[in-house]
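so my prof wants the structure for this chain in the tokens format not the other one, which i didnt know existed until like an hour ago. anyway here's the sequence
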Amino acid sequence: MADIEYEKNRLTEKLSDQYSRNVITLDEYERLLDYTSKIETTKEISIANKMLQFYRPAEPPEPDTSSGVFDLFKKQTENYDTIFSNRTINVSPKNGIGGKFSVVFGTNKIIVDNLPPGKTVINIECVFGSVEILIRQNVKIVNSITPVFSSIDSPSDKYIDEYLPELHLKGESVFGNITIKFI
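here's what i got, hopefully its the right format
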């Protein structure tokens, strides 16, 4: 029985290691940890070890380029919620995802740094709030934000070059104000 407990502890350590390196997700980790705690034979331990050999690192999430009030709860890499407050955020986009910004009765100042070549998407949901986006000069801005009783101030396209990084803004603004400025 002591050997089984030792193997269960080793298996738990292996699970924790794989979870910490993003090889398995939290749901898989909890499921396998629950399975490990119920193991009673060495055969079950060998099955659990074989299961762990086939796991590969979790794939990064696909960029969510949809917009809508009901999309607030979809998973993204970075979510920034500002409710009844103000916030300044420096964003460095990764893999075409700039993040999701939800502003309700608040103010967000978003500074976009190190925009990579290609398309980067930022989702904005603004309700009775204000969002100011500061970005460097040589960036093409594609604004697809839907205003409802709102204003969106965007600079005119000064630089038309097909090799420029692109910032795609998606989402909604309801009774809000969105301002895009070059710095």
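also thought this was worth mentioning. The two ends are 67 Å apart (CA to CA).
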